Design the sequence.
């Protein structure tokens, strides 16, 4: 193990904290093997590694059970040690190869209520260029469900006000056509006509729709700041607010309104409907909550 830790220190230049975590995880692994009577690295079997993972999840006399994420980190250290041992010719086979890490539970996306989204969108007041830009940005994020990287990469020619559509250029060079709702269209058009020309004068002619005060393309970090400032002005907790929350809210509200999950998949640009289906869990959760509070015989 010491040779492996030296390798991590010198060749991978891991931080002291990361190395300390690796050392703790591997010390526990070696103690587990010793208790099982396994002392020769060549004698470690897939079953031994699987038994160790099971011990991580259920706990033992010295340690409480670990959550899937923590157990996954610990077993990752073990897998790294075994790969290193094979590479160095210390053992012939990687006993950990067929022991997959535990799958962490799916985390439901955080979706705002329609009331909270409306409060955020209405929190930006004024007709100065930056206020018009900020309102257009947030209306566009919620009105299209686009990723923030897609929004800051948006070009003027991607917006078609006649057809009320937007060409979104997503991951892997894929493009999709997304409808532009009335509120978003009005906000973006007002910004393009009354604010963007003035902002663009200070820049170098970028085709980006959303510009910063210097006429350059708006950054992702600035978009986060704009949203958090609006959320704070609306009286909401802005500490965990991000543009992706508006994307989550967009998808959840569509499904709440009766949209087909396949349609939402296309609108979001998900390669697989499985990714989109996590939003259906949010709506089922909400249905269950409403049922529990509204039905006279839900509690019993």
Sequence:
């Amino acid at each position: 193990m010491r040779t492996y830790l030296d390798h991590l220190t010198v060749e991978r230049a891991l931080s002291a904290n990361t190395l300390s975590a690796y050392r703790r995880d591997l010390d526990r692994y070696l103690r587990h093997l010793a208790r099982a009577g396994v002392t020769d690295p060549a004698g470690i079997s897939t079953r031994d590694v699987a038994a160790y993972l099971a011990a991580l999840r259920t706990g033992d006399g010295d340690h409480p059970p670990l959550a899937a994420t923590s157990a996954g980190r610990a077993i990752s250290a073990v897998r790294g040690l075994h790969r290193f041992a094979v590479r160095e010719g210390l053992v012939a086979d990687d006993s950990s190869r067929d022991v997959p890490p535990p799958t962490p539970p799916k985390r439901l996306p955080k979706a705002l209520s329609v009331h909270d989204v409306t409060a955020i969108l209405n929190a930006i007041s004024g007709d100065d260029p930056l206020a018009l830009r900020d309102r257009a940005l947030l209306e566009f994020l919620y009105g299209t469900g686009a990723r923030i990287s897609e929004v800051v990469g948006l070009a003027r020619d991607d917006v078609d006000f006649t057809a009320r559509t937007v060409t979104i250029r997503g991951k892997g060079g894929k493009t999709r056509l997304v409808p532009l709702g009335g509120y978003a269209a009005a906000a973006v058009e007002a910004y393009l006509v009354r604010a963007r020309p003035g902002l663009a004068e200070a820049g170098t002619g970028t085709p980006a729709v959303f510009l910063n005060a210097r006429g350059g393309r708006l950054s992702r970090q600035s978009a986060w700041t704009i949203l958090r400032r609006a959320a704070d002005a609306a009286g909401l907790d802005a500490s965990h607010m991000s543009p992706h929350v508006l994307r989550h809210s967009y998808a959840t509200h569509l499904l709440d309104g009766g949209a087909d999950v396949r349609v939402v998949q296309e609108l979001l640009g998900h390669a697989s409907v499985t990714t989109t289906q996590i939003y259906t869990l949010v709506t089922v959760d909400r249905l269950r909550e409403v049922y529990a509070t509204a039905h006279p015989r839900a509690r019993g």
Summary: The longest strand covers residues 165-169. The mean pLDDT is 88. The longest helix spans residues 273-294. DSSP finds 13 helices and three strands in the chain.
